[in-house]
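Bug report (template v2)

What were you trying to do?
Predict the complex of my protein with JEW.

What happened?
Run completed; filing so the output is reviewed.

Input:
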Amino acid sequence: MRLDVVTIFPDYLAPLDLSLIGKARRDGLIELHVHDLRDFTHDRHRTVDDTPYGGGAGMVMKPQPWAEALEYVAGQGDSRPTLIVPGPGGERFTQPTARALAEEPWLVFACGRYEGIDERVYEWATSAYDVRVLSLGDYVLNGGEVAVLAMVEAVARLLPGVIGNAESLVEESHEDGLLEYPVYTKPAVWQGLSVPEVLLSGDHGRIAQWRHEQRIARTQARRPDLLPPPPPPADS
Ligand SMILES: N#Cc1ccccc1Cn1ccc2ccc(-c3cc(N)[nH]n3)cc21
């Protein structure tokens, strides 16, 4: 998978050199290119923003640097990339979204700042990209970089070979609609607190059943919205 990120803060993406994502890059499973939007400006101050038409607080990102950056990036490959623009008003980024994006060969991320990117860029970009605006959640960040770090990690970890033990991807939170079960390790008693006896039993059937029950109980307690609606009463 090829990933491109366009940002005015390239150093924000440095964490993608670390840990499993960094290793996947070194192993050639991921190809990542980070581009500084200011490299696509032509004035002395490398200006990327201007005042909003219609007034209001803050600044808006100018369309031309984005057009030049996205044109350059699209020209780096011979297929039609997916352009992901993080935004508080986007469709929700969820585990199914991550799974779908992990099937794509080329993702390009546009990190906005200020009050956002001139709206005409989204329409202009459809000539060369499949454009998606995605939100991490119902809260407002200062820019897209943090969202891109989260999305890249959520997508990249699903790629074959990135996570050493692919089995660990199966019973994770949200993978099948339920939250994950509680986990324990040595010592068996810590601060007077014991590991549940079933986990020490060696009875793999009982352990699997207990873990499933724990996932349902935890989901009911913390995220009942994830549970399927109860079936209608039989006589309805
Ligand atoms: N746009 C915008 C905007 C609109 C109003 C107030 C502040 C901003 C700041 N901002 C600029 C770029 C940008 C990118 C992504 C998010 C973002 C994503 C999630 N899930 N929350 N916030 C915010 C971003």
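What did the reviewer find?
The pocket of JEW is lined by residues 86-88, 112-113, 115-116, 135-137, 139-144, 147 (CB under 6 Å). The radius of gyration is 22 Å.
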